[in-house]
Amino acid sequence: MAEKDPWDFSEFGAPRAGQSAESDLTTSDSGRDGGTGAGRSVRAADSGFDALSDLGTAHGPATGALAVAGPPLTLLGISAAAAVIGLLLAALLGALPALAVIGWVLAGPFAIGVLALYTTADTRRRAQPIYVAPNWLIAGYYACLAVCLVGVIVSAIRIALWVGRW
Question: Which of 15, 61, 97, 107 is exposed most, by the fewest CB atoms within 10 A?
């Protein structure tokens, strides 16, 4: 009997033309049955999955057009506007305690909260296949954060001066 090629793995691959996906293979267990060559029937199953099948295609497995994602500039604008309004209220009209507190809330919790929403939405959008952001975005983000910080400090000083006069 002819020896089987040890490098022939054809029984483990996809079925060839004219061969069904599930076929009966006969193997010889010459070592186990005393060299009689009696074969046993083995049922081979092929899932049909080919991990390298999409390598040759230019478009890949995805269908449809890709959308271009960008940063949520509206949220950044709302945060910057709230910080500027809070700073102006505290700096110009902060002698009135109610306006100093309103300025602190606008420049602090509100503006920083909206900036946190911006960061969350921007992170989600950066995970998209195509993301395009303007060059000034990082500078705008840090400028908004700086205005928030200055607004909180100015309004906190105004509130402290008002409480100190009590």
Answer: 61
DSSP string, the chain: -PPPPTT--GGGSPPPTT--SSEEEEEE-TTTTTT---EEEEEE------TTTTTT-SS-S--SPPPEE---HHHHHHHHHHHHHHHHHHHHHTTSHHHHHHHHHIIIIIHHHHHHHHHHHHHHHHTSSEE---TTHHHHHHHHHHHHHHHHHHHHHHHHHHHHT-
> For the segment 41-82, what is each residue's pLDDT rounded down to a tens digit?
445 455 555 555 554 444 444 556 788 999 999 999 999 999
